[in-house]
Amino acid sequence: MSIHGRATTMMDQLVGRAAGPPPVSPAQAPWVNALTQDLRRVCSALAGTPDATPAVEDLDRLLAETRITLLSRRCLTCAYAEVSPRAIDDYVASRIIRQRVPAALVEDLGDALIGRVFEAGFTDAEQELALVREALARRDIAVQERDSGMQVCPICQSDNTTDYGWVMDEDGQFTAGHDSAGPDRLAG
């Protein structure tokens, strides 16, 4: 079976399991979403050549074209930033899943990967979470749970806040990713 066929089959299996019963739990959701996103990227990229059989390295490059971004809120006045625990879980799941999708497709290990997604059974998740939290602390990005996201900055009381994305570089540091207000409006 082609890589496109395997990705399509995995997507069908994933959707079937996600539809339940039982429903996807909050602990499973980041993993299911991350796998769904990467499978969609592969299916879309290979749609024009469905019989292609790219190597693991080719799929790694294909998926790397879309950066994994940690979503947050940022004050445009004083540059205070905060991220929710859920956004961190989504980010960690995306980073771990991204490492596993290419090999699962090439080596036809989709069933095993889907099983681990629904078990949230990735032994490196805690280590990855610790690395992310350390990088957030180095960048002075607060971890804060809010019902509706940060609307008013808790530091300067400005309501000039926006959605903001961070990207981790090769050195494990978060750098500016994107801002819904435009890069020219950012403080700090």
> In which order are the strands of the major sheet placed?
3-2-1-4-5
Query: Main beta sheet, described?
Result: 5 strands, mixed
> Which ranges are low-confidence, i.e. pLDDT below 50, for 5 or more consecutive residues?
182-188
How many strands appear in the DSSP assignment? 5
Class by helix and strand content? alpha+beta
Helix content: 40-55%
Give the averaged pLDDT, no decimals.
Answer: 89
What percentage of the residues does DSSP assign to strands (E)?
5-15%
Number of helices: 6
End-to-end separation: 51 Å
Q: Outline, from the CA principal axes? A: elongated
Reading the helices and strands in chain order gives HHHEEHHHEEE
Radius of gyration: 18 Å
Give a verbal description of the structure:
The protein is of the alpha+beta class. It is elongated, with a radius of gyration of 18 Å. It has helices at residues 3-18, 29-46, 56-64, 85-106, 110-119, 125-138, and strands at residues 70-75, 81-83, 141-143, 161-168, 174-179. Helix content is 47%, strand content 14%. It is built from 6 helices and 5 strands, in the order αααββαααβββ. The chain has a 5-stranded mixed beta sheet.
Which terms would index this structure?
single chain; 188 residues; alpha+beta; 5 strands; elongated; disordered C terminus
Structure summarized in a few sentences:
The chain has 188 residues and is of the alpha+beta class. Helices cover 47% and strands 14% of the residues. The longest helix is centred in the middle third of the chain and has 22 residues, at 85-106.
